Amino acid sequence: MDFGISPQFEKTLNDIQQFVEQELYPLEPEVGTRGFRATLPKLKAAREKVKKMGFWCPQIPKEHGGMGLSLMEHGMVSAVLGRSMLGHYSFNCQAPDAGNMEILLEHGTPEQKKTFLEPMLKGEIRSCFAMTEPEHAGSNPTWMDTTAKKDGDDYVINGHKWFTSSADGATFSVVMAVTNPDAPPHQRASQILVPIGTPGFKIIKNLSVMGHVGEDHHSHAEVRFENCRVPQKNLLGKEGAGFQIAQERLGAGRIHHCMRWLGICERSFELMCKRAAERELAPGKPLGTRQIVQAWIAESRAEINASRLSVLEAAWKIQNQGQLAAREEISCIKFYVAGVLLRVLDRAIQVHGAMGLTNETPLAAFWAAERGARIYDGPDEVHKMVVARQRLKKYGVQVATAGA
After folding, report:
1. How far is the C-alpha of 145 from the C-alpha of 359, rounded, in Å?
2. Domains in the chain, please, with CATH?
3. Do 369 and 355 contact (CB within 8 A), yes or no?
4. Mapping DSSP to helix (H, G, I), strand (E, B) and coil, where does residue 303 land?
5. Residue 404 pLDDT > 60, yes or no?
6. Closest CA relative to residue 77, chosen from 32, 19, 142, 131
7. Neighbour tally for 32: CB within 10 Å
8. 3 state DSSP class of 167
9. Helix (H, G, I), strand (E, B), or coil: what is residue 278?
10. Distance, CA of 189 to CA of 148 (rounded, Å)
């Protein structure tokens, strides 16, 4: 496995980091005090600068206006962008849009690409993804009540979703709904493109997460579909292939998430070290002279390094052998890096003391936004079961799947 990078790509990473530090760090306090929507004009200006620099849509092929990076390269860029909560949005590779772009590129019809994909690639519109339901465990994506029944040339959708991320201000949603109720569990659901203004598509509210309701891209909505009618031509891919398409976006998506978390870790680590060097317990005795703080710094550095290599290994395997071959590695990094992220954040907050709980640093905002890392895209417990099941098979032990 070769994790080396060319001098040209190293320069790209340095240029992107310089942009993040100079252009995006200063906007973070404004988002914290005025809100995301009020900061959109400045964010739009930052996005235009990104386009001019040639760093727009790093995960998208060049022929569609992106940088055309490989999975590993985009992972490295994601780690740099993750240093700011505004990084991925400013480069138009934010979730859930990035995943929706990828599945539209792969499965969209020419009409769907023209209507939904092209304006999203240009940054003119945003999207959301509606899968999770409050009535059912999100860890079992084959179990849902939302239905899409055929009526003439249309689908009529009825159901209840929540944690439909970024629905506030989005133009359309990719909706997971049961179209084939009598099929095997993994072939029951389909993905359907639903414009937000469609009658029967109702955003109930933005959910309060860790005390923050959020707005626009930085939000998670509760949504209801009440006799929501869309043409059958809005079916994405084949009917009954919803779960398969969702899995396609998740493998690469977990690489992006983990590298983004490592960006957060690196910035938090730097802030922790700086605070340990500057904050004195008494004249001439900075925090960094205390063994417990030194241990936190050492443990954080080792865990970040181990995480980075593990994620790059998983990305290399996906890139060279396919997602199925990397299933174990994907699950390992998902729960391990999420744990490292929260441990590093917790240590950095602790070193900052009460200041770490305020908006004087990005640490509190990182914590509030990323405690969900151990839950979304599969909770830790499910990923640990996947790894253990794969390992125990080799010793003749059959472990029941989740939900069995």
Report:
1. 40
2. 7-106 (1.10.540.10), 127-236 (2.40.110.10), 244-393 (1.20.140.10)
3. no
4. helix
5. no
6. 19
7. 17
8. coil
9. helix
10. 9
What angle, rounded to 10 degrees, do the helices at 242-278 and 71-81 form?
40
What would the pLDDT profile of 337-350 be if each residue is shown by its tens digit?
999 999 999 999 99
C-alpha neighbours within 13 Å on the C-beta side of residue 307: 33
Specify the residue for token string 């599945």: 103
What's the CA gap between 217 and 87, in Å, rounded?
13
Looking at the DSSP assignment, which residues form a beta bridge with residue 214? 219
How is residue 365 written in tokens? Answer: 């905002």
Token pair 């055309």 is found at 68
| pLDDT surpassing 50 at residue 240 | yes
What's the predicted TM-score (pTM) here? 0.94
- Give the helix ranges, DSSP H, for 221-357: 242-278, 291-321, 327-352
Place of tokens 């070193």: 351
Return the exposure string of 134-143: e unless at least 16 CB atoms fall within 10 Å of the residue's CB, then b.
eeeebbebeb
Q: Which of 202, 191, 284 minimizes the C-alpha distance to 241?
A: 191
> Residue 91 pLDDT > 50, yes or no?
yes
Q: Is 93 left (phi over 0), alpha (psi -120 to 50) or beta?
A: alpha
